[in-house]
């Protein structure tokens, strides 16, 4: 079962902390989203393996945009 990790707000991708194939635990930091001049960590919503990363550093994202997929 896949789990989408979505942006909670519009912003820019500042840093990606995981790679495809990495195992993550619920609440692990996956990436840093810069919004309103603040760095906002995006956490894994569940345990899983990073299946796909749909953004890259410096990308501008919208609220609810899928950033990565966990399996």
Explain the overall architecture.
By secondary structure, the protein is mostly beta strands. It has one domain (3-70): OB fold (Dihydrolipoamide Acetyltransferase, E2P) (Beta Barrel). 0% of the residues lie in helices and 54% in strands. The strands form two sheets. Strands 1-8-6-3 form a four-stranded antiparallel beta sheet, with no helix packed on it. Strand 4 (29-35) and strand 5 form a beta hairpin. The radius of gyration is 11 Å and the shape is globular. 20% of the residues are buried.
Could you name the key traits of this structure?
71 residues, mainly beta, OB fold (Dihydrolipoamide Acetyltransferase, E2P), four-stranded antiparallel β-sheet
Q: Can you give me a brief rundown of this structure?
A:
By secondary structure, this protein is mainly beta. The chain has no helices and eight strands. The mean pLDDT is 97.
List the helices and strands and how they pair.
Blueprint lengths: L2 E4 L4 E6 L6 E2 L4 E7 L2 E6 L4 E6 L6 E2 L4 E5 L1
Antiparallel strand pairs: 1-8, 2-4, 2-7, 3-6, 4-5, 6-8
User: How would a textbook summarize the main sheet?
Assistant: 4 strands, antiparallel
Please tell me the overall pLDDT: 97
> Any idea of the CATH topology?
OB fold (Dihydrolipoamide Acetyltransferase, E2P)
Element-level helix/strand string? EEEEEEEE
Radius of gyration: 11 Å
The domain tally reads 1
Number of continuous helical runs: 0
Distance between the termini: 6 Å
Helix content percent band: under 10%
The total strand number stands at 8
- Per the principal axes of the C-alpha atoms, what is the gross shape? globular
Return the CATH architecture.
Beta Barrel
Q: Return the structural class.
A: mainly beta
Poorly predicted regions: none
CATH H level, superfamily name: RNA polymerase II/Efflux pump adaptor protein, barrel-sandwich hybrid domain
What percentage of the residues does DSSP assign to strands (E)? over 45%
Largest sheet strand order? 1-8-6-3
CATH class: Mainly Beta
């Amino acid at each position: 079962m896949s789990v989408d990790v979505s942006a909670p707000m519009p912003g820019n991708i500042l840093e990606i902390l995981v790679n495809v194939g990495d195992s993550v635990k619920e609440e692990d930091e996956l990436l840093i989203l810069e919004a309103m001049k603040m760095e906002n960590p995006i956490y894994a919503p569940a345990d899983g393996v990073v299946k796909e990363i749909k953004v890259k550093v410096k990308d501008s994202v919208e609220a609810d945009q899928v950033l990565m997929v966990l399996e």
